Amino acid sequence: QSSLNKNDQVDFTDIEEIYGEKCSICHGKNGVSIIKSAPDLASSTLSVEERVAIILYGRGTMPPQKDVLDMSTIRGLAVYLDTFE
User: Fold this and answer.
1) What is the SS3 assignment for the chain?
2) Least reliable range by pLDDT among 1-5, 18-22, 46-50
3) Distance in angstroms (rounded) separating the CA atoms of residues 28 and 67
4) Which residues pair with 59 in a beta bridge?
């Protein structure tokens, strides 16, 4: 199991592509929500661990990704959201 901290180097090339394919449909290309039920990720104050939990288990209308994405990808996505500030 990979453990990424906010300051760890992450290769965002693949993560950005996955975000674009799976997440931007609801959360927008730059984390600014494009559908009413999707939270605005650009202004999120959640910790990386809180984001990991939401990606893993889902929340509201967002389906869980634990059986779709591997843990390193989920952590990478959670850290990637910090680029939306």
Assistant:
1) CCCCCCCCCCCHHHHHHHHHHHHHHHHCCCCCCCCCCCCCHHHCCCCHHHHHHHHHHCECCECCCCCCCCHHHHHHHHHHHHHHC
2) 1-5
3) 23
4) 62
Q: Quote the pLDDT of residue 13.
A: 86
pLDDT band for position 18 (cuts 50, 70, 90): very high
**Are 78 and 48 spatial neighbours (Cβ–Cβ below 8 Å)?**
yes
Nearest to 73 by CA among 32, 28, 16: 16
Alpha-carbon distance of 63 to 30, in angstroms, equals 20
Q: d(Cα 78, Cα 83) in Å, to the nearest integer? A: 10
* Residue 4 in tokens: 């990424």
Q: What is the pTM of this model?
A: 0.84
